[in-house]
Amino acid sequence: xxxxxxxxxxxxxxxxxxxxxxxxxxxxxxxxxxxxxxxxxxxxxxxxxxxxxxxxxxxxxxxxxxxxxxxxxxxxxxxxxxxxxxxxxxxxxxxxxxxxxxxxxxxxxxxxxxxxxxxxxxxxxxxxxxxxxxxxxxxxxxxxxxxxxxxxxxxxxxxxxxxxxxxxxxxxxxxxxxxxxxxxxxxxxxxxxxxxxxxxxxxxxxxxxxxxxxxxxxxxxxxxxxxxxxxxxxxxxxxxxxxxxxxxxxxxxxxxxxxxxxxx
Length: 264
Prior knowledge:
Blueprint (H helix, E strand, L loop, with lengths): L2 E4 L3 H13 L7 E4 L3 H11 L2 E2 L3 H7 L2 E4 L6 H15 L2 E4 L6 H6 L6 E6 L9 E7 L7 H9 L2 E5 L5 H28 L4 H22 L3 H8 L5 H11 L2 H18 L1
Parallel strand pairs: 1-2, 1-4, 2-3, 4-5, 5-6, 7-8
Antiparallel strand pairs: 6-7
Helix pairs in contact: 3-4, 7-8, 7-11
């Protein structure tokens, strides 16, 4: 399927990298456009994609159009492309945060084949977790959406009503995880370990812990119990985290972000 990108920022670059790396997509069938020509030049040079001179040309060349523009300009972009989109009727995939299927449909004069995707920043390491959902006309393309998302990480098809909370536990949580890893490393620095070494150890420990949850099928607390020897160091640290409100702080952070999303 010929795929066009409108907008070539960091996320688009990460997605294109994943698509080509997966070998399920061909660079010769990826068309890109950005109002900042230097961005398209960088991606074309690195991945040998096809550069387009306008958003309209990109739509005309594509069977699927990926909207990678910022949420505050997506309505204007859709207005500009409305006639071309209606004539070509490509599959539209939007990654605009906070913009629902209904919002995008309301920006157009026809009902498109539309899929909403929410990736996270870890797409840049081909390790994103993404959610996707489709409107009625795009139900037959959900397999394509899954393949598309899995080219730069993992993916889950999700009812759109859960997108606000997914945006937090899938989209905001990398920042929370980065903070946790950095806090571990800084605590090690306090005890004399070089920061770079401490970061490597902390990041790998968190990566391995995530893999254990995904691959073992066990609940996190069961794994916690396995690490906590009676009278040992781990249980001492776990009890300190609980005493200082670790779980409560995480829950409050998630709730604060969900409530912020509802006000945007």
